[in-house]
Amino acid sequence: MAEKEDIFSSKIKYEGLFDFKEFYRFCYQWLIEEMQLDVFEDKYAEKISGDSKGIKIEWTGVRKVTDYFKYSVKVNFEILNLTSVEVTQGGKKMKMNNGSVEVKIKGTLIRDYEGKFEKTASQKFMRSIYEKWVISSRVEQFETKLISDCNEFLAQAKAFLDLEGRK
User: Fold this and answer.
1) Domain count, the chain
2) In which domain, by residue range, is 34 found?
3) Using CA atoms, how far apart are residues 59 and 29, in angstroms rounded to an integer?
């Protein structure tokens, strides 16, 4: 069994004007291009009530870093009271959305994801020695990179929402 360790967990909240389609596209592309993840949409649910809707989205992104290490990133979006509005920007009318957005991200470092060291008790013991004494700096390096990437994703998502709201 692979050894999974949650390394990072955080969230951002935003309320105001934004373009939902562009925000969705931006986040998806950022995870693929910048973090080099294979992203899968596990859930997309809309609930309409009156003229507003609520949306829940769950993504899982994975990336094999080496033959031993793998990143797993879970991203959850919760959009509440999403309504379509028309705003005037520089004399032009634009369609945008108004509502509140919460983005949660959890980064997990998976070690021995193929279970190569899980066949016997002695192999498990050897894995613990290997991780503690031989590759401890590499483990720390991959943890730091995952934390940095997850933080940057939240920062970019927040920046996108802040810029969109000010248009």
Assistant:
1) 1
2) 3-166
3) 12
Query: For residue 164, which of 82, 103, 94 has the smallest C-alpha distance?
Result: 94
C-alpha span between 85 and 2 (Å, rounded) = 48
Q: What is the Cα–Cα distance from 126 to 154, expressed in whole angstroms?
A: 37
pLDDT in tens, 48-85: 998 999 999 999 999 999 998 999 999 999 999 999 99
Question: Alpha-carbon torsion 42, 61, 35, 15, what sign?
Answer: positive
Which of 49-53, 118-122, 149-153 comes out lowest in average pLDDT? 118-122
CA distance 138 to 161: 35
Strand pairing report for 92-111 and 69-89:
antiparallel
